[in-house]
Amino acid sequence: MTWFWRLACWLALWGMAACAKAEDQAIRLEQAQLLSVFGHGFTPPPALASDAGLPEHGWASVPLPHVAAREIVPHLDATATVTDWYRLSLSALPATAEARYLYIPRWKTIGQIAVYVDGKLLYQSEGSRVHNGYNHPLLVRLNGAAGALPPASVLVRIDRLRSSGSAVSSLWVGGAQSLVWRYQVRHVLQTQIPFSGGAAFLAVGIFSFAVWLRNRKESLYLLFFAISSVTFVRMLHYHVGGNYLPIGDDWFEWLAVISLMWLIVLAHSFLERLHLRPMRGLSHALVAVALLCSLVILPGASTAIPQLILLTPLLYVLLLPLAVLVFAEALHSALRTRSQEVWLMAGFFFVGAVCSTYDLALQHNWVSPEGLYTQPYALIGMFFMFDYIMFRRYVGALGEVEQVNASLAERLQAREAELELSHRRLREVEVRQTISDERQRLMQDMHDGLGSSLISAIRSVERGGVSELKVSQILKDCLDDLKLTIDSMEPLEDDLLLLLATLRFRLEPRLEGTGIALSWEVQELPALDWLDPSSALHILRIVQESIANILRHTRATEIRVGTTVDASGVRVTIEDNGQGFDVEKALDGAGGRGMQNQHRRAQSVDGKVAWKSGPAGTQFTLWLPLERAV
Asked: Is residue 582 helix, strand or coil?
């Protein structure tokens, strides 16, 4: 991993160097004079510092890059400090009036860095001494204005805690055209890419959190959000520092340390849910260790613990076994499940362990400080890995939904076909049943009405006691009865007026020969939903019987038919101006079976009949409900 990033970096540098002018080549300083001054506590860089003001003895030639190894177990005296003075020789720098720059790719210390040119303080780091922007490259202009002479001497002052060590890469001196692009490339690789990667990871994590809010059962989305948040916090110290530190050094370092701990715990939990193989013992142990360490190193929790920044290397060394344990578990799961996603995570844990080991060596100054921290790139790789896994899960979930929808559509189509077939069969059965019921009704009605009348006429003729006129009247009544039966089968569309109009059409020819005037005084009536052929025939026979009684018995000269509506039903009234009759006596049976039949037929449609009779005529009323009880 390290050689790959070095190769990519140097290829970029070489490509950009090819575009620079030959006369403006930068000089790489690989040697310096070093003077180390021991003391206690930090002192601010003085405004003036020159070779004459520093001790003459103690200078030693050192190669660049140069490191002072960091102690894993910190020194008990946390106030012991060292100030390192690096004296640079610019004798190889060609004489020119162009502006000159000092470029420092990497430096690392717990303290400050200051640059002196010809004895004057030109640059010093500000703000936090711990998170002082050590991962930011430096580009310092040496001569103040264009046309000024090149500097005669350059001193670089780096103070540090004795236990923390320090490091400085090789230094570059040259013009802007040779150094600015180097500085920009280094700045992108060391700070901007970690920041962009962490921000992108967090943005996708927030989207994953929103998905989890809609579907609480998918805990992987919540874990992805937690991992992205912890990763963002973990990567802060690579690009935040100097004047931009938002909180105190102890709390900032605490966040950097515990974020790595909890990242290991969350990655293990994600792996568990990914291959559906819970390891509760290991999970509980990892959570307990992370929680205990988070509480123990909490700033201000214990006065026996020295500054957290001095313990950080030791804590990172202790975290390595946890990372190796999680990697071993991921490898075992990959071998057992042979899942592509689990193999991907196992590969990431391996690469992450290698990168963390290299970064630990770089932090302890065990390797050249020229290198880059690789853990940010490993975390960016983790972002793409988790993003790929979640993308596959998301697309897989969409595919499952589409398959379920397709299956439901097929099942629905099959069910609709079954229902259509069943509905067709039911309609056929219903039609056959309706035809059978209607045939049965017609047969019964013709038997009770027309058949009874014909049989009575046949018997009268056979006995010879009936005149031809009487037989003719009986046959006419039978014909009217048949016509009524046929009329009842016509489509009425719930319209009672249409039914009465049909009866009027049948009765008017008979009334014209009798000299009786028919007055039709009807109004609009509401639809009767229950009006079917059987009910229509009952109503026709009731009205027909009432008019027939008038023709036979009342000697009336006028018949009035009217309709009215009330809140619960409609009324059909038939009035005549003939001679009246005794209603009570007629209902008792003296009037024949006609009135009883009218009453029976009215009851069959939930209706009522009533008579009012006197010397001035008779009023017959048929009341029909708007709705019938089921």
From this structure: coil
- What 566-571 contacts at long range (C-beta under 8 Å, 24+ apart), as own/partner pairs, is 568/625, 568/626, 569/607, 569/623, 569/624, 569/625, 569/626, 570/496, 570/525, 570/526, 570/528, 570/623, 570/624, 570/626, 571/621, 571/622, 571/623, 571/624
User: Do residues 252 and 313 touch, judged by C-beta distance below 8 A?
Assistant: no
In angstroms, rounded to a whole number, what is the distance separating the alpha carbons of residues 391 and 242? Answer: 38
> Token pair for residue 507?
């009765």
Judge if the upstream peptide bond of residue 321 is cis by omega within 30 degrees of 0.
no
**What residues are paired with 168 via a beta bridge?**
66, 107
Q: In this predicted model, what pLDDT tens digit does every residue of 62-76 receive, in sequence order?
A: 999 998 877 766 665
- Which residues touch 263 (CB under 8 Å, ≥6 apart)? 227, 230, 231, 234
Architecture of domain 2-188: Sandwich (2.60)
Q: What is the pLDDT of residues 77-125, one digit of tens each?
A: 667 888 999 998 887 666 666 778 899 998 888 888 999 988 889 998 8
The answer to whether 101 touches 175, Cβ cutoff 8 Å, is: yes
Q: Would you tell me which CATH number, out of the four given (3.40.710.10, 3.30.565.10, 3.40.50.300, 3.30.40.10), belongs to the domain 491-630?
A: 3.30.565.10
**Of the ranges 87-101, 151-165, 263-277, 455-469, which is most confident?**
151-165
Domain ranges of the chain: 2-188, 239-404, 491-630
pLDDT over 90 (residue 157): yes
